[in-house]
Amino acid sequence: MAKAITPADLTITPRDVRFGRGQRLGRYWLNDDPIATAFYNALSVTFPKGEAYFCESVKAFREGTPPKLAGEIAAFVKQEVIHSREHVAFNRHVVDQGYDVSLLERHVDEALALTKGRHPIGNLAATMALEHFTAMLAHELIANPKHLAGGEAQAVGLWKWHAAEEIEHKGVAYDTWMHATRDWSRGRRWRVKALVMLITTWKFFQGRRKGMLELLRQDGMTGPKVWAKLAWYAFGRPGMARKVAGVWVSYFLPGFHPWKHDDRALIALAESDYADAVMPAARREAVAA
Predict the structure, then answer these.
(1) Environment class of residue 6 by beta-carbon count within 10 Å: exposed (0-12), middle (13-18) or buried (19+)?
(2) Entry pTM
(3) Nearest to 165, CA basis, from 54, 284, 29
(4) Which residue, of 44, 47, 131, 272, has the fewest CB within 10 Å?
(5) Each residue of 118-177: pLDDT tens digit?
């Protein structure tokens, strides 16, 4: 088995917090911008079912893992379950604003249906690729305040909290993959990993593009000008897709591991920023614990 480089002192801590209960978000909760809001709303709709898939994919290989990795898998699952709960609540806000998300949910169901009957190692490879996506998006989301600038506190708090925990557990699926493929040659491992990442990237961008355009269509925004604005938001300014491109490429390099870039400092930064958005009761419980 290849040597993992996840920090020995890393602790993955599920934070049982709640956002936005009893409060109503504005329709365009992010800087009163329908493009920016659609970007995050469309992504959020995918999380509950997507994260359940991640959990099952990793749990399929937990038997026989070293004790440290077994504990990290358990913590990973707990974090993802709480993420799903909070995004279910967030998605209710989206629906409350009059959006019909059934088409977006159907796209998720169709994507997951393609995994049925697939060898579990394929599901783990897809999870590993998507976890790399979430980790690089999470890093950029916290490191660059422009992405969430002007957003309503509860929504911004949710996204920063989620991002912090994605950074914290970014190596779990990868380390599970390294354990599960410990008898593979380096060449075989790289070929499967690279192919799955390319397929996953294509499907990820296609799915999110369709979701954003559907939400914008419901706002009465269609046509080439809207497509151009969405492309500019993703690749121009603030340019999330453009800014993570280099990290995406690093996935294909020999010796890649998510923790070659130790960005744990961002976790503390995010926690200080989202603290005011956590519901008072949740804060009291956290202090009491």
Answers:
(1) buried
(2) 0.93
(3) 54
(4) 272
(5) 999 999 999 999 999 999 999 999 999 999 999 999 999 999 999 999 999 999 999 999
